Amino acid sequence: MFEIINDDQKQIIISLHLEEIYTEMCLKTHLRDEARVFSKETLSKKCIDNIVQLTFEEKKYSDYECFIDFSHIKYIAPNSGDKLLEWIQNLPNASIIHGEECQLLKENKMCVAYKDGMHDYREMFNDYGKKYIAKNCCDPKGYETQIGICLGVYVDIKKIINDSIEMLRWCYIIAYDLDKYFLSVNEDKKNLFFCHTLNGAYIAGILSQLLGYDLVYVDHLGPYNKLNKVDFYKGKSRTEEFIVVADLVCLGNEFLRAKNIVEYLGGTVKGCVGIIQMNDSIPAFLSPDQVNVFALKYTPKSAREELGYSVRTDFCSAQCEHCKKGGTINNGIS
User: How many CB atoms lie within 10 A of CB 213?
Assistant: First the structure.
C-alpha cells in the first residue's frame, strides 16, 4: 500500500515497518496514551497476509529493481516466514536491504539476494515527496498572508492531510528521522509536542500515536492571528521540553511566536518538526543542537525552481537583484 515506484530510475521500494504500523493502527480503534507504534519490531501475520496481496504486473515491471526495506524489523510472526520469503522471491528483481537484524533472514541467508543498503525507503521518499508536492499541492494563484507577505505559489498541505493513507506516510518519515536523531544523541526521554495551528495539531496527533509523546496545543497562531482554544495553561506540562510541530516552515515567524509562548510560561523548546521546510540548512531561529526534522527540505533556490515558490512584500520589486537570484524576504531570518 505504501510502496514507492520510481519510473525514472525503474525502482520500487517497500517499507515493511510502515506496512506493519498501518496494520497495527487499523486494528486498534484506540491506542493507549503510552503506545509507541513506531517501536514495533515484529511483522505480524495480519500484515504479511496483506503484503503478499501486493503484486506487480510482470510485463510492465519486469526490468524494475524491487527493494524490500527491513529497517526496524527484527522478528516475523510464527508460521509466516515462508509465506513472506516466497512473496519476496516472486517480486521483480527483488533485493533485501537493512535486514541485518531480522532473525528470519539470518536463518535463511541463501533465500534472497542482499543489497548493500545504498537505497532505503527514507532516501527514495525525497524524490517521491518532491514530485508529489509539485503535482498535487501547489496552487499557482499564490497567497497573501494577514501581514502582507505574498507567496508566488501556495503549498496546500491539506491536500496531504485529506488523504489519510498519504498523511501516515509523511508522518512516518518525520517519526523515522526523529527516532534516528534521538538515537544519535542517546536520548530516550519522552518529549512533548506543541502544536499551534490546525494542520500542526493533526500532524502532532499522528506523531503522538507513532512515538508515544503527549501533546499540547494553542489554536492557533497562524497564518491568521486568532486564538481559539488553549490546552496549555494547566498542570506541570508548562515547564517541560517541547518540540514544535508545524506543517510548513519558511521564514519561521510562526515558530518564533510559539517558542515565545512556551518560554514565557516556563517551558523549553527543543526544536521543530514538520512536513516541509523551505530552507534545508539550520535556520537562524534554531541552534545547531536543536531538533530540526522535516519530511522534505528545500533550499530557497530549489523551492523557486521546482515549485515556483517565492516570498515577497510590497517593498520588494520583482526586478530587484535579490529576487532575480531566487532569494526571499526574511527580515534577517534565513
Answer: 20
